[in-house]
Each structure stands twice: as structure tokens, then as C-alpha cells.
Design brief:
Helices cover 81% and strands 0% of the residues. The protein is an all-alpha fold. The protein folds into 2 domains: 141 residues, no CATH class; 34 residues, no CATH class.
Length: 226
Amino acid sequence: MLVGSAAITAASLAYFDAETLPPFVIEKLPVRFESLWMASLKVHVASAALAFPLCIALMTRTLQRRPALHRWSGRLTATCILLLLVPSGVVLAFDAKGGSAVTAGFLLSAAIVAAGMVLGVRAARRRDLVAHGRAMRHVVAQMSVAVSSRALILALDAAGMDPELSYVVALWGPVLASAAIAESIGRRLGSFNPFSTVLRNRHDITPLAHLVRVRARVGPVARLGR
């Protein structure tokens, strides 16, 4: 994902050249509210180039083991996504290639990112790390669509699929698949009980675990004896 993000950023640098218009921009013009669209394109590219690598870094144990750095990096990422990336993406969505079906897909992805970020921040503030991780996995999953969607477009073009149809499939497929995978991982991790896993793996049980297990069995008997 980092390599894909870097490749997209490198290919998008031409958007900031004031003297030339990239083929993507020429293909889009004319658009409604051209000045707003051009500004949104630059803001979206710049904020994505910053936010996506930060999101990936925040998912690593290296940053998660450094609470202060994780906290401030997370605040920077949340601010960038909520104030820059999502609003600019919404503006661009209404002139997306592929018509209303693609616009709806982009808006759905933006809504998941915004909702996931807000829920993730709220969970972090109340120290609910399980809910925080679950929400942030949805944010990262939807941001990864930028990479997976482009890869799928190349694959569908090589397979000879109609360009208009391939654009719709290459957007909706990664959006829905990413949401489903993130939710599946969240449910699995949310139901994970480390203590029960230790008890099942008896060769890893420490004397303390044996003691806890015995006391857990004796407790109900003692209560009944009362």
C-alpha cells in the first residue's frame, strides 16, 4: 500500500504545475465550478499523500508502542482527513468518471471514512482501544481503495472489459470488499479472549494461570455453600 500510495502521489505531481494541464484534467474539463474543482483536486491529492502513509504507520506496533507519538500523529491524521481529504473528495465525486453510480460509490466511501474517523477519535478519548482499532481499520481499508481500485482497473482493461463498466466495478468492488474485510477483522478481534486462549494451550500455562483456573472453579462452590 505504501508503494501504491507513493506511485499515485508521484503521478499526481503534475496537478500542481501551473503552466500545464495533465491529461486527467483536460479529460474532465469543462466542469461546473471549475475553480472549486481544481482547488479540491489539489487539496485532495496533497492531503491523501500525507494521510494515507500516516494511517498505515499508525497501524504498526512501532507507533502503537509509543502512546505520545501515536496520539499526536493520530490527531494530525484525523484533522487532515476530516477537514481536507473528505470534503475535497466529496466535491470531486460529483464529476467522477462513470456517472451517478461511481459518484455514489465515492460518496459511500467518504461517508465510511468520515464516520470511522469520528467514531475512532471518540473511542480513543474514552480509552476504548478495541472500538478505536475497529473504527480505524475501516478508515484505512477505505483509503486503500485508491490503490486497489487502480490495480483492478489495469487488470480489467487487460482482460478487455468495457472501460465504463470496468470503472464502476473497479470502484464498487474494492469499496465493498474493504468494508467487509475490515468489519470481519474487527468482529474476530473483538471476540478474541486472550485468557481463554492461554487456558486452551496448556503447555503454555504458567503456575499463576493454574491458580487462577482453580480459584475460578472453587469460587462458585464456596458461594453455594453459603
